[in-house]
Amino acid sequence: MSPPIADYAMIGDTHSNALIARDGSIDWLCWPRHDSPALFLRLLDERKGGSCTIGFKRLIGTARRYLPGTNILETVFTTATGRAVLTDFMPLSRPEEIPPEGPDGIAEGRVIRILRCEEGRVSGRFLVRPTFDYARRPCAPALQPDGTALFEAGEQRLCAAALPGGLVLEGEVVSAGFDLGLGEGMALVLSGGEDGRTVPPVRFEEAEERLAATRHYWEEWSACCTYAGGYREAVLRSVLLLKLLTYSPTGAIIAAPTLGLPEAVPGNRNYDYRYAWLRDASFTVTSFVMLGYVREAAEYLRFLRLADPSHGKNLRLMYAIDGGPPAEEAYLEHLSGWRGVGPVRIGNGAADQSQYDIYGEQLLALETFLEAVDYDPPQKTNDRLPEGLTNLAASAMAARDKEDHGIWEPRTPKRQMFHTKALIWVALNRAARMARRIGRIEEGQIREWERVAEEVRAEYHERGWNPARGAFTQSYGSDLLDAAVLRTVLFGAIEPHDPRLVSTYEAITRELVVDDLVYRYRAPDGMEGEEATFAACAFWRVGCLALAGKTEPARLIFERLLERGNDLGLFAEEIDAATGEQRGNFPQGFTHMAIINHALRLEREQRRRAA
Residue 245: how many CA atoms within 13 Å on its side-chain side? Predict the structure, then answer.
């Protein structure tokens, strides 16, 4: 049986990521980019999917951690005869001079696994078996004159090297045995390549040098985190994860590194999250900025310039990491899915949906960024900010009366969604605020945005309220509760002490809350299966409580929620209320953004009320 979703850790180099199970098996790897076809995918099919495993003779148990302040994974294997430490990382080092924009690190396109014996003696072997193109292309390894093994499938290549030592062919598998005494070590190096290119192997000493350089990169990056509150470990782990979800060549930010992990068991809620959703990326930008990582936020704005040359006129819901459209949704019918829960989808059909809250999301992120960089309007006479504000505000105004699919992307007809209307108010409100600050947009235009914003606000307060339910509901005229209403409070679209909001909170607590977990809604949405609770919604509830002055209950819920992550502090998108198991794509940026934002919000409200 496939390991639990929470069994996985992630390493990466801001180009691609690998997921490693508790037993040391690399079960997921898309190379050379986040959205490349997977060449290790045992995560989605235990029999057909390839992996890079490690096995020990007479294994007793394992323990693992990230080296502090890094994305370097350290797994301790205890056997009947000794103890060994496996260090997994993807090399990433600082250039001599960091350019003003673009990647801040040099990624080599490698996975390096350094194994050292720390007690007694350990023996076993590594096994390498890639299955290229989502296991659709056969490949057979060939030993090379230099002792490495080369796997090829069309233009895709994978080179494996054991340092020191040799490799052995076993059909479609390459193995590297080890028998290490105290203080002895070896390394397995996997190098990716396309178009006939591979990265050459390194010597064992060079592998250790790369480990030192990678550790230095991550420790230096972590030292820039400005947060020093009581939840630093959770916040730092979350922002390190968000950094791994960036694609440094363009500045894109993906939602998650995986595809096909189910949100419902059984069900068909299995999607591809290796794309840049504007909503998710905007949340992440806000998290970066609030922790002092302004460069990462600026890189995302660089990506937007690439992806949307219209400067807000033709903004799309999501993009591929190179700025183009996402791949069309398709099924990998030859794969069984995680624990047999299919279908396995690649691409994402939601790319063509209408979701008009994105204008508010973008303007929220932009305002946070401008505040962080101390934007000086008189010095910015040649930028495109006035044009961007005008275009985004115009798009929001054009959408004010339209139906859309909303934040949750249901596969059902469009409706007048409450959350969308509130975010249209946010868009116009923030556009007006920024326009007054920069001083290069006509006063009449700003007043028009403010006028329409207040009309929209009055409308969703009136039409979004359902007296029979005693709550603001998912859409106009609906009886359905939706936890997304809680999120609108966080941006001032509803006041936290509004009696109708208090009533809505109580209704959501009765019908959508289980212990400290929150379902986003409980209604047909065009998909199959009973989905799990949505982790970010649970953190939004914390924010609502804190803003309402209930900081102590908010703190207790927040700390219980943090305990629901895996042993490394990583979260998927959803959590099964009955079992506590992680569900959905993993790790999920949306959840970790919520951890960061609500750690900051909770402590800010605690300080404010103590003053």
Answer: 34
Question: Are 29 and 9 spatial neighbours (Cβ–Cβ below 8 Å)?
Answer: no
Give the list of residues 6+ apart from residue 292 with CB closer than 8 angstroms, or none. 224, 225, 226, 227
- Residue 28 clears pLDDT 80, i.e. is over it: yes
User: Tokens at residue 14, please?
Assistant: 């801001």
Contacts of 457 (CB under 8 A, 6+ apart): 425, 493
Kindly list the domain boundaries of the chain, sorted by start residue.
5-222
In whole angstroms, give the CA distance from residue 400 to residue 487.
19
The Cα angle at residue 410 between residues 544 and 466, in degrees rounded to 5: 50
What CA–CA distance (Å, rounded) separates 141 from 147? 12
In this structure, which CATH number among 3.40.190.10, 1.10.10.10, 2.40.50.320, 2.70.98.10 belongs to the domain 5-222? Answer: 2.70.98.10
161-197 pLDDT, tens digit each: 999 988 999 889 999 999 999 999 999 999 986 655 5
Answer whether 276's CB lies under 8 Å from 36's CB.
no
Nearest to 17 by CA among 586, 536, 574: 586
Q: Is the peptide bond before 164 cis (omega within 30 degrees of 0)?
A: yes
155 burial type by CB count under 10 A (0-12 exposed, 13-18 middle, 19+ buried) = exposed
The answer to whether the beta carbons of residues 106 and 92 sit under 8 Å apart is yes
- Round the CA-based radius of gyration of the chain to a whole number and report it: 25
Secondary structure of 194-235 as H, E, C letters: ECCCCCCCCCHHHHHHHHHHHHHHHHHHHCCCCCCCCCHHHH
pLDDT digits (tens, 9 = 90+) for 95-143: 988 988 899 999 999 999 999 999 999 999 999 999 999 999 988 899 9
pLDDT value, residue 373: 81
Answer yes or no: are the C-beta atoms of 84 and 115 closer than 8 Å. yes
Angle between helices 278-290 and 294-307 (to 10 degrees): 150
CA 492 vs CA 299, 509, 604: distances in Å: 28, 21, 16
> Does pTM top 0.90 for this prediction?
yes
**Do 9 and 25 touch, CB atoms closer than 8 A?**
no
